[in-house]
């Protein structure tokens, strides 16, 4: 007898999700996401939602990156601004200082003369502060100079980069896989809702 595949119903999916009460004890990955001078409120909201899904430790919003509460952020974050800890810094260097004080290595998501593939990060490279830059200009040269490592996502078509929120999502889920793989970890499923 074969089992037929079916799409899960919304209630079934919700029963498998963490609740806001369960999030503080969830197994967050040692990644700080740093958004430097991101213009789009929708990109910021999307990065919040992705950060919730990957269980990142925290988000640092620096420079003119908009911060919650904003309806445009909330539209794409879908409540993730409540589940992802975040701080705003006036400039990227104060954010970098805070990340270093937390023990994180600064890792820019940028094409540099010394960047390596995004999937080549090792577990010993953690904790990491993953820096994503402005949608048009990317990570600034000054921030690149402060970085401990640089990773890039290969581009096979005619364009040289991805949308900032898309690139962050690809990189952060790969970092989550790398962090959890050697430990055989998977995020603990949330307790069933009654």
Structural write-up:
- The structure is a single chain.
- The chain has about 190 residues and is α/β, with parallel strands linked by helices.
- The chain has one domain (about 20-180): Alpha/beta knot.
- About 35% of the residues lie in helices and about 20% in strands.
- The protein contains 7 helices and 7 strands, in the order αβαβααβαβββαβα.
- The protein has a 7-stranded parallel β-sheet with strand order 3-2-1-6-4-7-5.
- The chain is globular.
Largest beta-sheet details? 7 strands, parallel
C-alpha geometry: globular
The CATH class, by name, is Alpha Beta
Structural class: alpha/beta
Average pLDDT over all residues: 90
Q: Cα distance, first to last residue?
A: 32 Å
Percent helix, as a range, is: 25-40%
Enumerate the spans where pLDDT stays under 50 for 5 or more consecutive residues: none
Structure described in brief:
This protein has 194 residues and is an alpha/beta fold. The chain has helices at residues 10-16, 41-54, 71-77, 80-83, 92-101, 141-146, 164-180, and strands at 29-36, 56-62, 86-89, 105-109, 116-117, 128-132, 149-152.
Write the layout of secondary structure elements.
Elements: H1 10-16, E1 29-36, H2 41-54, E2 56-62, H3 71-77, H4 80-83, E3 86-89, H5 92-101, E4 105-109, E5 116-117, E6 128-132, H6 141-146, E7 149-152, H7 164-180
Helix pairs in contact: 2-3, 2-7
Key phrases:
194 residues, Alpha/beta knot, 34% helix, globular
């Amino acid at each position: 007898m074969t089992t037929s595949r079916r799409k899960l119903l919304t209630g079934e999916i919700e029963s498998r999700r963490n609740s806001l009460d369960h999030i503080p004890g969830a197994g967050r990955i040692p990644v700080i996401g740093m958004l430097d001078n991101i213009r789009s409120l929708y990109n910021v909201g999307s990065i919040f939602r992705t950060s919730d899904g990957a269980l990142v430790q925290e988000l640092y919003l620096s420079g003119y990156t908009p911060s919650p509460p904003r309806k445009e952020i909330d539209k794409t974050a879908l409540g993730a601004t409540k589940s992802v800890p975040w701080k705003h810094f006036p400039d990227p260097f104060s954010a970098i200082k805070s990340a270093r004080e937390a023990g994180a290595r600064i890792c820019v998501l940028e094409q540099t003369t010394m960047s390596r593939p995004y999937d080549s990060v090792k577990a010993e490279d953690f904790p990491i502060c993953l820096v994503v830059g402005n949608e048009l200009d990317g990570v600034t040269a000054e921030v690149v100079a402060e970085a401990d490592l640089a990773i890039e996502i290969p581009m096979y078509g005619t364009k040289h980069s991805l949308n900032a929120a898309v690139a962050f999502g690809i990189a952060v889920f790969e970092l989550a896989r790398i962090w959890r793989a050697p430990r055989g970890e998977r995020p603990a499923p949330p307790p069933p809702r009654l």
